[in-house]
Amino acid sequence: MFKSLVKSRLGGFFLSRLIAGYVWLVRHTVRLQIIGREKGRDGTGHVIAFWHGRLVTAMVFAPHAPAPFHMLTSTHRDGDIIINGVKIPNLHFIRGSAANPKKRFKNKNGVPAALQMLQRLGAGDFVGITPDGPRGPAFEAQPGVVRLARQAQAPILPIGFAVQPAITLESWDKGQLPLPFARVVAWVGDPLTIAPTPAGTSPTEDCTRLTQAINLATAHADYHLTGGAPAPQNANPAAPTHTD
What we know:
Strand content: 15-25%
Strand order of the largest sheet: 1-7-6-2-5-3-4
Order of helices and strands: HHEEHEHEHEHEEH
Low-confidence stretches: 100-107, 236-244
Number of helices: 7
């Protein structure tokens, strides 16, 4: 019954309004600290990589980005609900979905979305990607973001988000919902350069580098949030916590 309500026009409208109210309240009450904000300010386009479960905190970060921030979102009904419910300065949406190998003939606007992302990167904008989305595995970078960065010859900025207090959902991505007046730390890691390689070369090594970079940035943010020691260089948390 709940799924039917959400899929209805009326249900989608009320859910969009609910999301809009929540995002507005969070964005105007959280205390955001950005560490490494000087990175990515050279006027060139950057791919911004963060985990899927940190979408809300990424939206809080977007207005403070030094360039227009474009985020990929689904072409399905849930994408409509998000776009209708999220109105944030400096944040724009590109409609598209990652390819599903089981439905390779189903059009999900993947090619037009990729072209838009390449155009925005070429114009010096930021393009936000969740390398483990939309299907997981969680906290493991998939090849799509590497291919995009390689084709655009744009560096990848890994960003780790830590928030306290927050609600952690029992979802595949362990999504975090910041509570009003929460403290959020965004740790911007060092840019990753994806070297051009011949077509067909496996991006596994670059995916591993990116996974480690986002996990390290998240560990730094987590340690900084709680006032602990700096994160060790080999930090590789499977699922960052601190939700109390």
